[in-house]
Fold this sequence. Notes:
It is built from 18 helices and 24 strands. By secondary structure, the protein is an alpha+beta fold. Among the domains are: 6-66 and 256-311 and 539-562, D-Maltodextrin-Binding Protein, domain 2 (3-Layer(aba) Sandwich), CATH 3.40.190; 81-251, Dipeptide-binding Protein, domain 1 (Alpha-Beta Complex).
Amino acid sequence: MGSPTGAEKGFNRSASRQLAVYGVYAVLAFTLLMFALNFAAGLTSTQVGGVAGAVDVENNEITAYIRQDPPQLNTTGAADAISGIVLGHVMEGLLRYDEHGDIAPGLAQSWELSGNRAIFHIRDNARWSNGEPITAHDFEFAWKTTLDPATASQYAFILYAIKNAAAVNAGEMPVSEAGVRALDDHTLEVLLEQPIAYFDKMVAFTTYFPINEDFFRSTNGRYAADADTMIYSGPFKLTSWLRGASLRVEKNPYYWDRDRIRLDAINFAYVTEDTNTLLNLFKDGRIVQVDLTAEMLEGAMQQGWILDRFMDGSVFFIDFNHRPGRVTGNLNLRKAMQLAQDGNELVDRVIKLPGYLPAKSLFPVWLKGVEKTFQEEYPPPVAEYNVALAREYLEKAKQELGVSEIPPLVMLADTSPVATISAQYYQQVFRKNLGLELVIDQQIFGQRLAKMEAGEFDIVLSGWGPDYNDPLTFGDYYASWNLNNRGRYLNPELDAQVRIGQSSLDPRERMDAFGRIQQILFDEAVFIGNYERGRLYATDPRVKGILRRAIGAESDYTSAYIDVNAH
């Protein structure tokens, strides 16, 4: 959300083995050798047709794009990868991820974790973008505001490691009882429900970022609604935000580590995921980097672009609505759909992009177990493609539901290219194999999230990326208290295993709990795995240091710089 940490190295090894099986990446590598030419001449100029190009050497700026408009920049409620990309440039918490993907000091210059108590020491030179000091009180206010039931934050659960946090968020205790307090301006004390080994990884996440109380209240309920209704703790500050059109961030002169930041500004001048538009923008030298789809691959190779790839750590799946009254709450219907589709076909014949892997589990292949990867230690159970057996389950479902035919199912999806072709694929597959009619409800990113939260779907093409580098970031997704569990799946046995994963300090006991969660999700056909996402992309050779991460902001320009001698 980088450079390989131990877990990510494990991921890359596993991915490489599977890609070798498919043979796709090898073919691509050979093809790229044939087309390894420099960029077209248009990329060497700063201006293209009178419009600012991808690289503005004179002003030390670059131009990029973002796939969708960020739905939410208020860190008490931000819950999506797009908002996370923007916040990863303009905000910083106690700790951060460095260019190697390791936890590093952020606004806290040092910290101590001892049992169920953590102490963070805030830097003397930590400043907001308006020049005011960042203090421990800013963290206390932000975290308690998130936990306040009146905030209705769907991400409050990620603070539940803090003592009394869950009870506060449920309205059972006053906000003042949450176990976080500023001992003074530079010392933050956090009491935990129980000792946990991964709390330092959690505080790098966006929900743990600070908020200045005086500024927050001065916005009269409009905090983070516009660029000028926020102040910023990170390397950049948001100076322009035209909804659905563009964003601009400029270097924050008060950022404590500003000498590390080499760009003066980043223009996210385009908000689009239209493949033809992006291909043309990159070809015309308007943006510094572009993610490629299968349809764009041939054109990219014809241009001689140098391509690279990374796995962004995300798992994508069909999620079911388990709410009362929904036919998808029926186990036999879900099992029928589980058996009537083939994830390998989706990846190999529909998406057709190097780096994508069939999703065999909610726990992706890069996650580390005790000694090996989690999937090596706990092989995922597999539902073999079996149409005949699927139809038997479908008949059982009809009998239990008391219907002669399953009514049309609403399949919610966003408008991204991969979501579009995936939705069309599943519509055809379930009609052909089960006679089910799927009505595709395609919505822009933010509206899809809103409809998921409201439960306005039968099935939804969804996904989940890691918030921090621990299996629990996936393992608690279907916990009853997790508001990201938008299908409202409820299973006390799964909840009990999540509690073990949260509280145990024994690595094997924790992994055993995640293994049981994996089995429950399979037995109950809680979701249908689609793919683990890889991204194939091209970059302007004059821009170095762009990081693509599995943990933290997926696209990270904070270490980027312009190399005027590159061609």
